[in-house]
Amino acid sequence: MTAGSTHTGNRAAAGRAPRVLLVALLASLLLLAVVAALSLFIGSAALLPGTVWRAVTAPDDLIAQVTVTDLRLPRTLLGIAVGAALGTAGAVAQAVTRNPLADPGILGVSAGAGLAVSLSVALWGVTRVEGYLWFSFAGAFAASVLVYLIALRGPQGATPIRLTLVGVALSAVFTGMSQSLAMLRPTVFDQMRFWGAGTLADRPQGTLEVVLPFILVGLVAALLTGRATNAVAMGDDRARSLGVPVGAVRAASALIITVLCGAATAAVGPIAFIGLMVPHAVRAITGPDQRWVLTFSLVLSPTLLLAADIAGRLLVRPAELQAGIVTALIGAPFLVWLVRRAERGNL
User: Fold this and answer.
1) Prior bond to 160 cis, omega within 30?
2) Quick one: 229 exposed, middle or buried, by C-beta within 10 A (0-12, 13-18, 19+)?
3) N or C: which end of the chain has fewer CB within 10 A?
């Protein structure tokens, strides 16, 4: 084969790549649709598929209508929004810090947001999501700054492993403090007892409407910064040579992560590992291009969260496991595997 034909073959392969990714993206969207449908059909109340379908399209049964449209449908839509927020935040964090172990849950951002919400509930009696949402934003930002500053004091700086260790340690501290606060005012915290474990169930009416504008803004901003984030992921010097303002990109990314993680945590409580697992799995399909990583993470992260929520309904039926517990059961071994790879220099 001649050099010219090899070059032509490479160009053809490069031309096919976007088409292959588009097909994979359509398959991912179909998978999300299937899982979302299952979220409507599966629950503690045993409803026939035909009953569920009629409850959505032409309701003729009041009990089925309340179960499906008032409980399961908002729960499913909330899972899609929160999953997209957590997955996108994780993808942005991994790219902009060049830390393959980055995830808002592991780095303590979600737990920091949770602690701030617990403080607002315990000290000021704020129990509505529109009230403690702003505390969640502040806690997410403060936690991310604190984790980075502590990790930076190490002899080698804020290495991926050190950031992870500091984040996990502070997450445990923040979670313990949140649980202690819950004991101070048990009657106030009673209505949020499942929130601390990370749950899509029994969220107050209107929760999605409150957090959705912030999540949408964060998602759009993340997608718009994909090209600049690509450059930063290649290294600061390379990014500056391409004219990318590295400091501004990092600041914008920190704000995006704060908004996405803060809104998601305020809505459903701290949920870890979604933003860690999905971007890693996505890169096996897309490669390092952050624009594709973000797009696929936005679709597949809610798929994973809804699947975890469905599994929680089935594992201990008729009771339920919270979605945050199920993602932890899956994500903890995944984190151990990633850390072992990082120690061997394979990440």
Assistant:
1) no
2) buried
3) N
Which positions of the chain have pLDDT values less than 50? 1-16
The count of C-alpha atoms lying within 13 angstroms of the C-alpha of 304, restricted to the half-sphere facing its C-beta, is 29
Handedness of CA 278, 284, 285, 288 (dihedral sign): positive
Q: What's the CA gap between 90 and 88, in Å, rounded?
A: 5
Q: Whose CA is closest to 256, among 281, 220, 310?
A: 220
Helix (H), strand (E) counts: the chain:
15, 0
> Where would I find the H helices in 153-206?
160-184, 186-189
| Six-digit token string for 195 | 């929130």
In one letter, which amino acid is 336?
V
Distance CA 227, CA 243 (A): 12
Task: Give the other-Cβ count within 10 Å of 26's Cβ.
Answer: 11
Closest to 326 in 3D by CA, of 343, 304, 345, 344: 304
Q: How far apart are CA 262 and CA 86, in angstroms?
A: 10
Question: How many CA within 13 A on the CB side of residue 65?
Answer: 6
- Which one, of 312, 255, 315, 266, lies nearest residue 78 by Cα? 266
Which runs of E-coded beta strand occur in 30-163? none
With beta carbons less than 8 A apart as the criterion, state whether 237 and 244 touch.
no
Output the CA–CA distances (angstroms, integers) from residue 35 to 66, 143, 285, 336, in the order listed. 21, 33, 20, 27
Nearest partner of 275 among 252, 257, 255, judged by Cα: 257
pLDDT tens, residue by residue, 95-136 = 988 888 788 888 899 999 999 999 998 888 888 899 999 999
Structure tokens at 71: 């409980």
For residues 175 and 105, give the distance between their C-alpha atoms in angstroms, rounded to a whole number. Answer: 11
Helix (H) or strand (E) holding 64: helix 62-65
CA gap 41, 194 in Å, rounded? 23
